[in-house]
Task: inverse folding
């Protein structure tokens, strides 16, 4: 959970400096080696690695380093509070892993009224969540006050009508958490808001002719957007060079009409071998932009040159609508009935995570260290441990895996749900996101059929 390399005071050792730890460590490693050798004898592997510890003893310097290292969380907290010059780290996903495996998450449903389908969401702070809907509303939910506020969407210079308002499909916060990028009133444009005040900064236009489905930040200034028109646009948001119109002289007009700039893209590229870009993510490890298109292809762009590197047809991939990237570069792609883990170097599938429920459809995915969170079309969240290679197992009941089941939410009219089939209605989880402490989880979505109007929204804590 935590690791702190303690620096002893003069003439004394830290409290974790217990020499018997070295012998315990040797015995533990010896048992692990014997277990590995036994498994290799029973069933030899095609690929085997050998550790240096099998043949070499730890040096005195390494032993001192081990004895000076504390894995006690109390030592980590005290070192941080005292601002000591000690190397320390903490596994941020340990809290969520513990809460999930011990069945401690409880859902608090959120009533959104007649809002139609939540497509995207982000935590703005420890008490505010922003989300976009199919009915083209940008909303902010206050966790403490349990109140939902609407944020005005930005109008482009051409004007927009009802036909161009097809929903806000993406909202992303830049690394320094100073800007929020999301959809505008016209679904082919992007809107930028300043954080934490949510004041409008600018609107990006003249890049796409169809809906913007997803966006991703490369750094604090550069943003990439992908659209159904198979184009990828690069934007630069720098308030020092953006020309903002002057505010009206009358105070009444200033309050009614906040001013914001209109910007054009830096570059627009046609994605070859693509049909309707559905999802976009940025791989920091390999400095590349990954895209999913609805014709079953995955595409890679060089983030530094903004040029297309490769495209690869995904194996038996249908309804691939979401993508996530781990810190080490591993990709996860959600499909109709399973999730693919892809090698970032070759885009070959290294693991096919079969869904535990038939026909659920993977609608959202995200990584928290080694835990892959999967939102499905059957109102359930599943959790896959990438390091263990299996679904996260419950510590309360070892015979089952960890699954969070969402409440029904709101559907209008109820008669349409009853007439669809005899199957019990459940909402699709189109979006989910953790707060910065990884101890709270926001999930949202709505009915999976396009003809149904409704929403689902809840907080697990």
Result:
């Amino acid at each position: 959970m935590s690791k702190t390399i303690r620096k002893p005071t003069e003439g004394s050792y830290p409290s974790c400096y217990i020499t018997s730890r070295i012998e315990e460590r040797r015995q533990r490693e010896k048992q692990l080696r014997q277990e590995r050798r036994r498994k290799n004898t029973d069933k030899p592997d095609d690929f085997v690695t050998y550790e240096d510890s099998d043949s070499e003893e730890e040096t005195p310097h390494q032993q001192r380093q081990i004895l000076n290292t504390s894995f006690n969380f109390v030592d980590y907290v005290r070192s941080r509070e005292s601002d000591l010059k000690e190397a320390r780290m903490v596994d941020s996903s340990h809290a969520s892993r513990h809460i999930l495996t011990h069945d401690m998450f409880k859902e608090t449903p959120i009533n959104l009224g007649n809002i139609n389908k939540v497509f995207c969401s982000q935590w703005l702070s420890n008490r505010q969540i922003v989300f976009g809907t199919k009915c083209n509303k940008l909303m902010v939910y206050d966790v403490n006050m349990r109140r939902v506020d609407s944020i005005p969407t930005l109008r482009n210079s051409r004007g927009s009508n009802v036909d161009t308002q097809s929903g806000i499909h993406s909202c992303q916060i830049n690394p320094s958490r100073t800007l929020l990028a999301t959809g505008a009133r016209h679904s082919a444009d992007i809107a930028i808001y300043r954080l934490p005040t949510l004041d409008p900064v600018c609107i990006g236009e003249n890049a796409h002719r169809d809906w913007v489905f997803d966006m991703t930040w490369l750094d604090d200034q550069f943003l990439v957007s992908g659209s159904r028109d198979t184009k990828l646009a690069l934007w630069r948001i720098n308030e020092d060079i953006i020309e903002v119109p002057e505010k009206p002289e009358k105070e009444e007009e200033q309050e009614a009409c906040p001013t914001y700039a209109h910007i054009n893209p830096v570059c627009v590229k046609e994605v070859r071998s693509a049909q309707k870009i559905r999802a976009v993510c940025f791989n920091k490890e390999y400095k590349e932009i990954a895209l999913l298109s609805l014709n079953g292809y995955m595409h890679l762009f060089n983030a530094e040159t903004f040029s297309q590197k490769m495209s690869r047809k995904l194996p038996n991939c249908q309804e691939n609508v979401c993508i996530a990237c781990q810190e080490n570069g591993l990709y996860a792609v959600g499909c109709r009935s399973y999730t693919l883990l892809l090698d970032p170097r070759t885009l070959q599938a290294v693991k096919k995570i079969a869904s535990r429920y038939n026909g659920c459809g993977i609608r959202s995915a995200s990584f928290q260290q080694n835990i892959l969170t999967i939102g499905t079309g059957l109102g359930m969240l599943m959790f896959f441990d990438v390091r263990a290679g299996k679904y996260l197992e419950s510590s309360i009941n070892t015979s089952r895996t960890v699954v969070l089941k969402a409440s029904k939410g709101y559907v209008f009219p109820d008669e349409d749900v009853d007439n669809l089939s005899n199957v019990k209605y459940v909402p699709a989880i189109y979006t989910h996101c953790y707060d910065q402490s990884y101890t709270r989880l926001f999930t949202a979505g709505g009915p999976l059929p396009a003809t149904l109007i409704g929403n689902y929204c809840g907080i697990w804590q």
The first strand starts at residue 2 and ends at 5. The mean pLDDT is 86. The CA atoms of residues 17 and 67 lie 5 Å apart.
